[in-house]
Design brief:
about 325 residues, alpha+beta, 6-stranded mixed beta sheet, binds zinc ion
């Protein structure tokens, strides 16, 4: 059920414990706008803490994860949405994915020496978004929707163009012309324990339902005004654990008639398992399995969550015999 209610009458606003790790959908019907506010606290902290990433790498991965969640919410799908960058900068690969159930994970591959010499550390954690040119460099960003076997995979791919990941996503929208949307992302260490937090805001134009008599000029003005209001949200507000998502939306869009809908929970959860890794090993060429059988134990580590799976000679013998 999708219950909408007017924020102005939300009496629980101040008494609520501040909800976290969620997607808060909202609509601004007078201007045919739909949006989502994403808040990530313990979930993004857990993902980033599973790895020993340098600060700038953790920061840009945190933004990528948030972007994946923000974008996934714009699509109707049942499966996994993946965002991936591949590029020539110090951070050569980023993967972030989110399932329909709200399981989120991600990892990055980087070159520590190049990262140090790029001086990229200076760009993170000071209220600015991590720099795409400094950290990721030139390359592409791809979005994939995988709905399981026997279904068509959707993939969109575009050259990385923009100073931040949010700008790169907007560049993608302009290229694909599928919809008009604006995105804002923030990531920071905050709170007493200095845990990672992230926030994302996306606004998109939707065709008015049921041929409602919206006047084109009003809708155009509304879009422009909403974008100005959205850009007034500070990075700190986007990640502030003390500011509830509803209160932030009310602060930004109270004069525009914003309405919020049921939230969707998010959690840090990897989908790796011994069975899945075995399946990957089964797809290896026989010669490579043969080589692994020379070792007493082969350890496979999940890049997403750093969990290690051990396979001994008996395991590999069984795969080779299949
Ligand atoms: Zn894993």
């Amino acid at each position: 059920m999708n219950l909408a209610f007017d924020l102005t009458f939300d009496r629980g606003l101040d008494g609520d414990p501040k909800p976290d790790d969620l997607v808060q959908p909202f609509r601004i019907d007078p201007f045919a706008l739909r949006g989502r506010l994403v808040r990530l606290g313990p979930a993004v902290d857990r993902i980033l803490s599973q790895h020993d990433y340098p600060e700038p790498v953790a920061a840009i991965l945190g933004e990528a994860i948030t972007l994946a969640v923000v974008l996934a919410g714009a699509l109707k799908y049942d499966g996994v949405f993946t965002l991936q960058t591949k590029s020539d900068g110090p951070v050569r690969l980023i993967v972030a994915d989110v399932s329909t159930e709200g399981a989120v994970r991600g990892y990055a591959q980087y070159d520590a020496e190049r990262l140090a010499s790029a001086g990229a550390a200076a760009t993170a954690g000071r209220g600015r978004s991590p720099s795409v040119p400094d950290l990721i460099g030139a390359g592409y960003i791809a979005f994939t929707v995988d709905q399981g076997e026997d279904t068509e995979r959707y993939q969109g791919i575009v050259e990385l163009a923009g100073a931040t990941l949010a700008e790169c996503a907007q560049h993608y929208f302009r290229q694909s012309e599928q919809f008009q949307a604006a995105i804002k992302l923030a990531v920071a260490r905050s709170g007493p324990e200095g845990g990672w937090r992230a926030g994302g805001l996306m606004l998109q134009r939707v065709p008015p339902e049921g041929g409602s008599p919206l006047i084109a000029d009003d809708v155009e003005d509304g879009w422009r005004r909403a974008m100005v209001l959205m850009s007034s949200a500070t990075p700190f507000e986007l990640v502030d654990a003390e500011l509830s998502p509803r209160r932030l939306l009310l602060r930004l869009f109270h004069n525009e008639g914003v309405r919020v809908y049921d939230t969707h929970p998010l959690e840090a959860r990897c989908r790796c398992s011994r069975e899945r890794i075995l399946n990957i090993l089964r797809s290896f060429p026989g010669a490579e399995i043969e080589e692994m059988r020379n070792e007493a134990v082969t350890t496979v580590t999940c890049q997403f969550c750093n969990r290690s799976y051990r396979f001994d000679r008996d395991d590999l013998d069984r795969i080779a015999a299949e």
